[in-house]
Write a structure and sequence with these properties.
With 185 residues, the chain is of the alpha/beta class. The protein has one domain: Class I glutamine amidotransferase (GATase) domain (Rossmann fold), CATH 3.40.50. Helices cover 33% and strands 22% of the residues. The protein is built from 6 helices and 11 strands. A 7-stranded mixed beta sheet has the order 5-2-1-6-7-11-10, sandwiched between helices. A two-stranded antiparallel sheet has the order 3-4. α1 runs parallel beside α5 and α5 runs antiparallel to α6. The two termini are 25 Å apart.
Length: 185
Amino acid sequence: MAKVYIFLADGFEEIEGLTVVDLLRRAGIEISMVSITGKRKVTGAHQIAVEADLLFEDSDYGDADLLVLPGGMPGTLHLMEHEGLDKLLREFYSKKKPLAAICAAPTIFSQKGFLNGIKATCYSGMEDQLTGANVVDLPVVTDRTITTSKGLGTAIDFALSIIKDIKGETEARSIAKQILYKHYK
């Protein structure tokens, strides 16, 4: 079974983070919410408190198949500044293991040099921060091992794309049908 970790910081965009968790769990994909704050309670950008499954320092992530970063402000900045997460993301990238980010969070990948020469998207108005990327105006883009998405309005597409990559098109379509989502391509 695939193992996915999604990293939460105070100020994360709740819909982007929790949609991924919800839909992946519906698809039978093991996903853990990881707090980088040193405490299990993480408060989103709209003051919705979430209890993470574990603290960043409580895992070595050796079993991880995919790392996911939700956007939101100032959550994205907190994710960008976390030294342990920086090291983990760089390790994943160097091993060509899958990474995914939505909204403002793809700028984290850009800042680390991960997007050089690949197609990517992000929150509208932040495209100039995708240094080195071939910026495209699509809801979700996967190029090589990196998936990026535009934002809250594309969170379902983002989650379904991750499901498709892990469990296949049939499972992604099944989840879209279960949640009455008719826009899945």
